[in-house]
Design brief:
By secondary structure, this protein is mostly helical. The protein has six helices and no strands. α4 runs antiparallel to α5 and α5 packs antiparallel against α6. The longest helix is centred in the middle third of the chain and has 24 residues. It is elongated. The model has no long low-confidence stretch (mean pLDDT 93).
Length: 205
């Protein structure tokens, strides 16, 4: 039972830990260093991972946030492995599985403050490629609802990547980060529970 729902359980634990972390965050945003508590519209998730909060106080949210990110990365890693086994095309399966594992490892390293930014950049690039392959497989299937969800998510994710890498519309980035976070979870759980190996077996090229 636990093995069957391992991805869901891991994601739920992660979300709970991250929510707890927001409750322990001392305060401070890049717009207002004197603000109190976690501001969902102006704080980044990465603010929860820093040793010090933006206001300079010791970040008591950090232990919960680290565990939350580790559980989330591990859950995504398990998903990439499981989903890759549903794909008949070896090259696509290889990309989803092994780049997914690599992205997971990089996700673990993002909890290290000195490595956070470069690991986020590297894992984002890998994730963009992995999600492109997954979406391509879904589009070739007969899963019409998943096609709409996949294209919507991928478009949103690519736009968020554009914002991040070009430093455009950064005032909206904290909100966009959480939108992506939510859509990604919904998408991955939908792929996990609403697709089967048989849905992709006819796709050979």
């Amino acid at each position: 039972m636990v093995k069957k729902h391992l991805i869901l359980i891991g994601i739920l634990i992660s979300v709970i830990l991250l929510i707890i972390a927001t409750l322990y965050y001392p305060g401070g945003t890049y717009e207002d260093e004197n603000s109190i508590g976690y501001d969902w519209a102006n704080n980044y998730i990465s603010n929860l991972l820093r040793p010090l909060a933006v206001n300079g106080a010791e970040n008591t949210a950090r232990p919960f946030a680290i565990l939350g990110v580790l559980f989330l990365s591990a859950s995504f890693g398990v998903f990439f492995i499981k989903f890759s086994n549903r794909i008949k095309i070896k090259s696509a399966s290889f990309v989803i599985k092994y780049l997914g594992v690599l992205a997971t490892i990089l996700g673990f390293i993002t909890v290290v403050p000195s490595m956070h930014d470069i690991m986020v950049t590297a894992s984002s690039i890998l994730t963009l490629l992995i999600f492109f392959y997954i979406t391509a497989m879904v589009i070739k299937s007969k899963l019409n609802l998943m096609k709409v969800l996949s294209i919507t998510f991928l478009s949103t994710f690519y736009f968020a990547a554009y914002m991040y890498f070009t430093r455009s519309f950064l005032e909206y980035m904290p909100i966009m980060q959480k939108v992506i976070f939510l859509i990604k979870i919904v998408w991955i759980l939908s792929l996990e529970y609403l697709t089967r190996e048989e849905d992709f077996q006819h796709i050979t090229k």
